[in-house]
Design brief:
Blueprint: E1 2-5, H1 13-22, E2 29-30, H2 45-57, E3 64-66, H3 78-97, E4 102-105, H4 115-130, E5 138-142, H5 155-165, E6 170-175, H6 176-181, H7 189-202, E7 208-213, H8 236-245, E8 253-256, H9 262-277
Parallel strand pairs: 1-8, 2-3, 3-4, 4-5, 5-6, 6-7, 7-8
The structure holds zinc ion (2 copies).
The site of one zinc ion has 3 residues, from loops.
Length: 284
């Protein structure tokens, strides 16, 4: 697998590449702008191209943009969907000029309406975003923790999006903490095998290009989105080991979105590297 962090780019792209390189990353994820605003900045093509060249020189790629947390493609408010689409399309355009393969997005919440009505809104929004997408850029739907009316908490719902839209550049990211919170028991080899079978049946494993590797202390099926350090939560080293050893994960990208500062990052990526190297399971 290609592994890396969600890195801060506020200190400049060079610092982000240096940080990823220092920790041995072979991939990374970043926000293209402030993730808490609907504002869209001008696209700085030379800076993005320089960032891409620096990543290539460091052996980092493919990489991902994570879209703004404000995005809601399922909203009953057309203005919210319009603003969300503007953010999403901007990230797809940034990805196209910046040699970013994946634009990872949450789908949003249906609010108070019927899921079927919300689903039609999500499908229409994704189709619009994919219209004219650069061939080398994929729009990646991230599974949610499935709280309340959140879209994308089940493999069935993500699979329905994939099949309804039928676009080759529509892909899927599986966040392990969200999967656990949505009720998928991925802490054992059997549980992981069942989960991958379900993904393959509903979505197709070839559509899954990326994982967010986060452990969690939320109870199984707790529908809450809290990330924790790798091997120090309920998924545990055994769960992550089963995931990385599954053929469905081979060669794909794994991004850590674990909390904390640099010492935590170092510990988390060391834990992941240990899992990938087949080191013996250590007590957390
Ligand atoms: Zn996310
Ligand atoms: Zn999360």
């Amino acid at each position: 697998m290609r592994i890396g962090f969600h890195v801060r780019v506020g200190g400049g792209y060079d610092a982000a590449v240096a940080y990823a390189t220092k920790h041995g990353c072979t991939s990374l994820q970043f926000f293209s702008g402030n993730p808490k605003t609907y504002r869209v900045g001008a696209i700085d093509t030379p800076a993005l191209q320089k960032f891409a060249a620096a990543r290539t020189a460091a052996g980092i790629g493919p990489v991902a943009i994570h879209t703004s947390y404000l995005i809601n493609l399922a909203s009953e408010d057309p203005k919210t969907v319009f603003n969300s689409l503007r953010l999403l399309k901007n990230d797809l355009a940034v990805a196209a000029v910046g040699d970013v393969a994946y634009v990872n997005t949450h789908l949003g919440s249906y609010g108070t309406r019927e899921r079927s009505a919300g689903f039609a809104t999500v499908v229409a929004a994704l189709e619009e975003a994919l219209d004219g997408v650069a061939p080398q850029v994929s729009l990646v739907m991230e599974n949610s923790a499935g709280a309340g009316q959140l879209c994308g908490g089940t493999m069935e719902e993500l699979g329905a999006c994939v099949r309804t839209i039928g676009h080759p550049n529509l892909r899927v990211c599986i966040d392990t903490a969200h999967s656990w919170a949505a009720g998928y028991a991925i802490d054992t080899p059997d549980g992981v095998a069942r989960f991958f079978d379900l993904i393959d049946r509903e979505i197709g494993l070839e559509r899954v290009v990326m994982f967010h590797f986060n452990d969690t202390q939320i109870a199984l099926g707790g529908h809450r989105d809290r990330h924790w350090h790798i091997g120090e939560g309920l998924i545990g080293i055994a769960g992550f080991r089963a995931i990385v050893e599954h053929p469905g994960a081979r060669g794909k990208v794994a991004i850590l979105e674990t909390p904390g500062e640099e010492d935590d990052d170092a510990r988390n990526i060391a834990a992941l590297r240990g899992v990938l190297d087949g080191a013996p399971v250590a007590a957390a």
